[in-house]
Amino acid sequence: MDYLPIFLRLRARTALVVGGGQVAARKADWLLKAGARVTVVAPQLVAELAIRAAGAELAHVAAPFASAQLAGAALVVAASDDREVNAAVAQSAHALEIPVNVVDSPELSSFIFPAIIDRSPVVVAVSSAGSSPVLARQVRAQIEASLPARLGALARFLGRRRAAVKRALAPGARRAFWERLISGRTAAAVLSGNESAAARSFASELRSAGGSAGEVWLIGAGPGDPDLLTLRALQLLQQADVILYDRLVPDAILERARRDAERVFVGKEAGGEQAQQARINELMVSLARAGKRVARLKGGDGYVFGRGGEELEALAAAGIPWRVVPGITAALGAAAGADIPLTHRRLAHSVTLVSGHAALDDSLDWRALARPRQTVVFYMGVAQLPRIVARLRAAGASADLPAAIVERATLPAQRVLRAPLASLATLAAREQVAAPALLIVGEVTALAPGIAAAAGSGDPELSRAQRPAVGAVA
């Protein structure tokens, strides 16, 4: 470790910045945010610094650098565009044992500025010891993306209640209480901006401290690509004690979960689904009553053909607290992965989502599904593909109506099969399409580059999409 990471208290202390350009302005901005009294030494200032000097936000010494200007400074930043001046600042500061940073010259510096994530009072600093500032900024961006925007508000909320917890709980019980609070309903309310609800939840939690109330999170895992998880889903997966997951959740998503969380596969196959769903409901309730934080992880979105409503009913009936985290449903993920717009001003003014099991349902309005100028997406339709095609054709759908099947959407092995409706089942059988796969029917499926001509000629076209994951090198 080349540098000791520390947080320096600068409030009301003097910080000297030598240089009047944009780099100096950025450093002065951070110092002002930390509460320092900033003095800028430079013959001339860029507009941003000049405005702040005119408004008395900082002091301006319109002169060249001189070592006497360092008197009383808690630290100094050399940010001029003159290397000799910067070297002189460093030499003088080292002689007086004043911490100094020389921009882009770590060899002359006694401290360096990290890449900063500011969720005050929570502050995260990332450093590459000056070897690769761009890499440090990229790491900062990745961390920042995983932190809630209102994390600082949560820290302040908890800080105001530390004394109450100290009075109410013995030292050995406090840590477990805070951990439960930070990952539970109270924190969720603060992060959503509802501090009045958070205050009520906190009071209830403190009164019942030591109890074993758990919670269930119904989380949509999206179409498969782990980079398409929502931030809230990722945050809760890092907190869950137990993860109940189905067969549409790939290992790459489970790897984003807390390492020591218990993983329980509860995937349903064809046949006996009702009994299996009842077992899942009982498992969620029993685990929550045992004090566990349970992540019920479903492919796509739990409220779109995911039986999330049934699970919510079971939790409500048992009095178990829950939270729902939506996911990118398969229709959106598959369409985006295959470059198929679900709506289009000329071709489709509506989208209908249908369960593939509905092919066995005589009450479904197939004439409405066969109408032009719309997009119809069938979930779980591979097994019933010939029946679906036959019913659409019988209801008036054209034999030449463009259609597509997206197999393993958003994953590296994604495949897209496009053909006129009448030819699609034959193509799918020849290519041995297997679940998970989505059927999209409508003129929009012919819009991908190079597809329109093939669709117009009636010749089936098979296209394979081997797409690298986000951030990978193609």
Q: Which helices and strands, and how do they pair?
A:
Elements: E1 14-18, H1 22-33, E2 37-41, H2 47-54, E3 59-61, E4 73-78, H3 83-95, E5 100-102, E6 115-119, E7 122-126, H4 133-146, H5 151-159, H6 162-168, H7 171-182, H8 185-191, H9 195-207, E8 215-220, H10 231-237, E9 242-245, H11 251-254, E10 262-265, H12 273-289, E11 293-298, H13 308-318, E12 322-325, H14 330-337, E13 351-355, H15 366-369, E14 375-379, H16 385-394, E15 402-407, E16 415-420, H17 421-430, E17 437-441, H18 452-457, E18 461-464
Parallel strand pairs: 1-2, 1-4, 2-3, 4-5, 8-11, 8-12, 9-10, 9-11, 13-14
Antiparallel strand pairs: 6-7, 14-17, 15-16, 15-17, 16-18
Helix pairs in contact: 8-9, 12-13, 16-17
